[in-house]
Write a structure and sequence with these properties.
The complex is a heterodimer of chains A (332) and B (270). Chain A is mostly helical and 332 residues long. Chain A has 15 helices and 2 strands. Chain A has a two-stranded antiparallel ribbon. With 270 residues, chain B is mainly alpha-helical. In chain B, helix 1 runs parallel beside helix 3, helix 6 packs antiparallel against helix 8 and helix 7 runs antiparallel to helix 8. The chains are: A mainly alpha (332), B mainly alpha (270). At the A-B interface, helix 1, helix 4 and helix 9 of A face helix 1, helix 2 and helix 9 of B.
């Protein structure tokens, strides 16, 4: 009964139909460049939240109080909560209680704006949870032995090499551009992940993600080009992916649907849109960072709903191509 | 007069016959519908599992993309079936329950209908989940068998590598899993030795193998009524010791990871 379906999965060599053009959208969100020098000045200007308060762009504390005053009040609140506990707490329990004290106070002092609270929690996640969050400059590399280059290969270099390999550039070409031998590379490729395992804050992984997002500009690797895009519109589609949030969400949905129908989703995107996985993921990192830095829950839900809607559309398309889903004939 | 389900409302009124019939029919349709979906999921998985096992057994490659693609496709279909059940529950069962409520049908009868249908739906979800587990199990690699292949290969080739300069034998003193420079004992030249794909997979499977070999210790911790922390610490040390035994070259690095895992665990202990 499932022979045709399983044959499709096991020996899938069907040609994919070309993707239709994306629909018009009425709302465009500008892609925020992480390398724009003008942003350095903006980092010093307080940001206005949905409420009338202004917020320090680095700490996300309200500018109507000092951090010292907040920390003192938060400690006092935490001590009161701690005194109320009637059972022994683990170190994690105490950290969670401290976080609870801080977030309760933050809401009280900043107009009970929950989106602003999320932004605050992300900006201060290292202190509140012990884990770093992408896009908030929480990692200090200098002087930190975890970030020491391995055989001369920095974390940025490592992300650049990974990006180039995922683009499909031959390993030999990449290693030649980096001036590195294969044996050295294999050890580097073993030891950087080991450093990530050692880092309890996930700072290295976070920083790696940030570097991956800009890896296409690595000075030694930027001139290496992947094979020509599968379709002529590949470069134009990649540029669109960086600026058109709806297009980005549509392709995310399409890729998910492709995997759910037994296709290689990344390959399907390459064949139909000319965008390789490496470039796609670099853009994804940037969208995620921008979303973190301008957290807005209703926008997030809006884009999630849109992606799900597109995923369903593509699922119907793939289902039709394979002759339907296995239970289409079963009705209530 | 019509004592449907043997229940009556506070005033003693029976459920009107047309409603009683509708309740019975809707429930039966729901049960039949879910049973048909279950039969379809079962048939799909019974066809797919042998194929997945055959694919798994045909390769030593640890991350074989085709296996995961097929697995993903089959899971995708199970998700489609579950979505169908969920949508039907939202569009047909719950609204009917609300109709009963609005029609003033005795509360206990309406509640019984709702709970009976919900319980059947939970069993359907459990059924799908069980098959998903079996699908996943079919994709799992036999790490012990693969490790034995690696050991056997090493036994065969350990005296076969020759110096690239003078041709003298360069014995492989251990299992190399990365490209390495080996010094010729005869002429001193460094030759590049590239391990086979099989040997390279040792670093990928070592942890999983160590975890499998010490799973009984983790089990002892999980099953202990008080989950005594020392039982977990005992498991963690044993797992890392086994990991280091399989892959001694990574022992120094593993110890740092062990310390981090131990610290994480200790921070969670009250």
């Amino acid at each position: 009964m499932f022979k045709k379906f399983l044959n499709n999965l096991l020996g899938n060599d069907d040609e994919q139909q070309k993707q239709q053009g994306p629909p018009e959208n009425t709302f465009k969100q500008q892609f925020i460049s992480q390398n724009d020098d003008d942003d350095e000045e903006d980092d010093e200007v307080p940001v206005q939240g949905a409420h009338q308060y202004l917020f320090d762009p680095q700490t996300q504390h309200g500018t109507h109080y000092t951090k010292e005053a907040f920390d003192a009040a938060a400690n006092q609140h935490y001590e009161a909560l701690l005194a109320d506990q009637d059972e022994t707490l683990s170190e994690n329990d105490k950290r969670n209680l401290k976080r609870e004290a801080i977030t309760q106070l933050y809401l009280q002092w900043n107009g009970h704006n929950y989106d602003q609270l999320v932004q605050f929690e992300m900006a201060n996640s290292l202190e509140l949870t012990g884990y770093a969050t992408q896009g908030f400059n929480q990692v200090t590399e200098e002087g930190n032995p975890l970030y020491e280059p391995i055989h001369g290969i920095s974390l940025y270099d490592y992300a650049g090499i990974a990006h180039a390999m995922a683009q499909g550039i031959p390993e030999e070409t990449i290693l030649k551009a980096m001036g590195m031998e294969k044996a050295v590379w294999e050890e580097v490729n073993l030891l950087w992940p080991e450093r990530m395992k050692e880092d309890a804050t996930f700072g290295i992984m976070t920083k790696y993600g940030e570097y991956f997002a800009t890896a296409a500009q690595h000075p030694k690797l930027a001139q290496l080009k992947p094979a020509t895009a599968a379709i002529p519109e590949g470069n134009a589609n990649l540029e669109k992916l960086k600026t058109d949030r709806y297009f980005y969400e549509e392709l995310c949905g399409a890729r998910t649907a492709a995997y759910e129908y037994g296709l290689d989703g990344a390959q399907w995107i390459l064949e139909n849109f000319g965008i390789n996985l490496s470039d796609f993921q670099a853009v994804a990192m940037n969208w995620m960072t921008a979303q973190n830095q301008q957290f807005n829950s209703s926008q997030i839900h809006h884009y999630m709903d849109y992606q799900l809607e597109k995923q369903k559309e593509y699922a119907e398309k793939f289902a039709k191509e394979q002759g339907g889903n296995i239970a289409d004939d079963i009705a209530f | 007069m019509f004592n449907v389900f043997g229940n009556k409302n506070a005033a003693g009124d029976p459920v009107p016959a047309p409603w009683a019939q509708q309740i019975r029919e809707t429930q039966e349709r729901w049960f039949t519908f879910l049973q048909k979906l279950e039969e379809r999921v079962e048939a799909l998985c019974q066809a797919a599992i042998p194929e997945l096992k055959a694919m798994r057994n045909s390769t030593d490659t640890v991350y074989e993309a085709n296996i995961y693609q097929v697995w993903s496709g089959v899971r995708g279909q199970i998700n489609q079936v579950r979505d169908k059940a969920r949508q039907t529950e939202e569009e047909k069962i719950r609204p009917f329950y609300r109709q009963l409520d609005h029609a003033g049908i005795v509360y206990t009868v309406a509640l019984q209908f709702s709970e009976t249908c919900s319980e059947r739906y939970r069993r359907f979800e459990d059924f799908c989940h069980t098959w998903e587990g079996q699908l996943e199990a079919a994709t799992k690699q036999d790490h012990e068998a693969l490790y034995q292949k690696i050991l056997d290969e090493h036994e065969q080739i350990k005296d076969q590598f020759k110096c690239q300069q003078c041709g003298a034998p360069v014995p492989l003193e251990k299992i190399y899993f990365t490209t390495s420079y080996l010094q010729c004992p005869a002429c001193g030249t460094q030759s590049t030795y590239e391990p086979s794909t099989l040997a390279k997979s040792l670093s990928w499977i070592a942890r999983s193998l160590a975890e499998e070999r010490t799973a009984h210790l983790l089990d002892a911790y999980n099953k202990d009524p008080r989950q005594h922390p020392d039982l977990y610490r005992n498991y963690l040390r044993a797992m890392f010791d086994e990991w280091n035994r399989i892959l001694p070259d990574m022992a120094a690095s593993n110890e740092k990871f062990y310390q981090r895992q131990l610290d994480d665990f200790n921070n969670s202990v009250r």
